[in-house]
Structures are given as structure tokens and as C-alpha cells.
């Protein structure tokens, strides 16, 4: 059991990152807005995303390399750089909604201005990154999963 939890940490984090309550709530709100006519698109997107995560996890487990390492090895430097830039843009696009969502939540709950909510969220992020750097990934994983 101990061996399982040693390797299961990153998987739990990815599951939480992809199928978090905020993401599902946004999907449900989109369904309410469109009269649930496009709910099959969201269900299919989640199913395909879950399939791709499972395939990526299997690839990493079998080869010992991440998906990014395989892309770097399988494609040339130019294509690898383009893939890296596109991935960074996707990460920024995904994270910007979380930062703004946190800022809006601070505004609604405490009356804090939006810019201050963004600063608080950024400070929170850097605090977790520092904790990971100083105390290791397992401490951060334990905090997030708990």
C-alpha cells in the first residue's frame, strides 16, 4: 500500500486539476445557458480528456518518461518549440480563469477590489511553490489532496 501511495501522488493532483468542482460547475452553467442541448459535448470532452490522461499515464509508467519528453524526442527542435509555446498558452488560458475566479470570490465575500484579489491569489500560488521547493512535492500533494 505504501508503494501505491508513493506513485499515486501526481495522479491524484492531475485528477483534481482536471475534474475539479469549478470546472464541472462551469460546464453545468453552460448547460443551463444552452438548455442542456450541448451537454453531450461536455460529456464527450471529459471522456476524451480522461482517456488521454490515462494513455499519458500509461506511457509514462511503461517508458519512465513524461509526455513532454516523448514529444521532445519524437519531434524536431522547431516542432518541439511550437508545442511548448502552445502548451504554455493553454496553461496561461486555463490559469487566468482561476485567478479571476478567485479575485471575484474575494470581491463577493470580503469586498476586496479585483486587483487585490489577483495579488492575493498570486501570493498564494508563490507560497505553495515555495513550500514545494522547501519541503518537497509530497508535502504539497498531501495538502492538496487533504
From TrEMBL:
Keywords linked to the UniProt accession: Membrane, Transmembrane, Transmembrane helix, Transport
GO molecular function, one term: manganese ion transmembrane transporter activity
Topology term for the membrane: Multi-pass membrane protein
NCBIfam families to which the protein is assigned, alphabetical: Nramp_1 (NF037982)
Pfam families on file: Nramp
InterPro entries listed in its UniProt record: NRAMP_fam
GO CC term (a single one): plasma membrane
UniProt-listed GO biological process terms: iron ion transmembrane transport
Main location: membrane
Protein name as catalogued: Uncharacterized protein
Spans traversing the lipid bilayer: 38-61, 82-106, 112-131
Keyword Transferase: no
Amino acid at each position: 500500500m505504501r508503494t501505491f501511495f508513493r506513485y499515486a501522488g501526481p495522479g491524484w493532483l492531475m485528477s483534481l486539476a482536471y475534474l475539479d468542482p469549478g470546472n464541472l460547475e462551469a460546464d453545468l452553467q453552460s448547460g443551463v445557458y444552452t438548455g442542456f442541448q450541448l451537454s453531450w459535448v461536455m460529456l464527450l470532452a471529459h471522456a476524451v480528456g480522461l482517456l488521454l490522461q490515462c494513455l499519458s499515464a500509461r506511457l509514462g509508467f511503461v517508458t519512465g518518461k513524461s509526455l513532454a519528453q516523448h514529444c521532445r524526442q519524437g519531434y524536431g527542435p522547431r516542432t518541439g518549440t511550437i508545442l511548448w509555446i502552445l502548451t504554455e498558452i493553454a496553461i496561461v488560458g486555463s490559469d487566468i480563469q482561476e485567478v479571476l475566479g478567485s479575485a471575484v470570490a474575494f470581491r463577493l465575500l470580503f469586498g476586496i477590489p479585483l486587483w487585490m484579489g489577483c495579488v492575493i491569489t498570486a501570493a498564494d500560488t508563490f507560497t505553495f511553490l515555495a513550500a514545494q521547493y522547501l519541503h518537497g512535492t509530497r508535502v504539497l500533494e498531501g495538502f492538496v489532496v487533504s
